[in-house]
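Structure request: UDP-N-acetylglucosamine 2-epimerase (non-hydrolyzing), Clostridium aromativorans.
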Amino acid sequence: MKKIKSIAIFGTRPEAIKMAPLVKELGNIENIENKVCVTAQHRQMLDQVLELFKIEPDFDLNIMKSKQTLTGITTRVLQGLENIFDEEKPNLVIVHGDTTTTFAGALAAFYKKIAVGHVEAGLRTYDKYFPFPEEMNRKLTGAIADLHFAPTTGSKNNLLKEGVPENKIFVTGNTVIDAMNFTVEKGYVFNNNELNQIDYDNRKIIMVTAHRRENWGRGIRNICNALKRIVQDNAEVEVIYLVHLNPIVKDVVYKILDHIPRIHLLPPLDTKETHNLMNKCYMVMTDSGGLQEEAPHLGKPVLVLRNVTERPEAVEAGTVKLAGTDEDNIVKLANELILDQDEYNVMSRAINPYGDGKASGRIAAAILQYFNIESGEYKEFQ
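Returned structure:
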């Protein structure tokens, strides 16, 4: 029986969350021998996800360094993967999304003439510096990839405009929805006890994350000042801000928001805690790409704290709104959702365009189809 040898490569927490259900799926398929290589571009946060999903990597490049640069990450991934590819000789390398690990992994495979599968392919803002470096990472990965696993029809259309052959594009839904089937639990009790003391039933809890490089400086300051005004305007509101550990973000946030009543500043949570907090909260404000997909699955409106998004399907579906980083606009849109129940209901009940929890199975079927294995029965996500 023909067997495909594949290597799934990822290095950050967001990649790991979205690749974990696919790794599990591939491990159950007789015709695929999949191995896992982590770069550990983000060590601690990556390890949390590996533990949660009980994934033991076959290879660990362990590249993370203090004050690492994009150049350093890229070169260490390229060098680390060269020996692995020479030894393993895979038929397929699978990467996810838009991190530097993603681009370097695809490039390393290209140098060895190994086919590349790109999960979450086709997202675009068409501005190479927003987000930086993610927009160019995903475009360059797309130029290399042989199989494009697009989460939505919109992403597929982006790839078609760039000249990617239609028979190389597979619309699958987003694997992050698959991951939430593993993580969200009814009656969940948090490991962080401060979160257990909050009255989710009678208060309007806003979950916040904001840390993107494009928002460093003025953007983060505006977001923090807006949050302060929102809680001052609305006595029933509490904010839980999961503050990134990067001092460029953390120092600004604590300077403005520390000791403000009803604003809770907490370090980043692990994946399971984050998903269950999202499930209990009233709404989400974020500059994260992943949360734009995850929160609508749980019926939570999202205000995106960015001026552009590579996920326009969510805006079109009505599950998210672009708030940008203008302080007054953030306050205005947040107050609308807090005070206008009809406006809130429109967003919370909109259908999430990002998946049905079966994306991993579609990707596996597409891989089998691509390699002409009879059991592959890929059916496009609608």
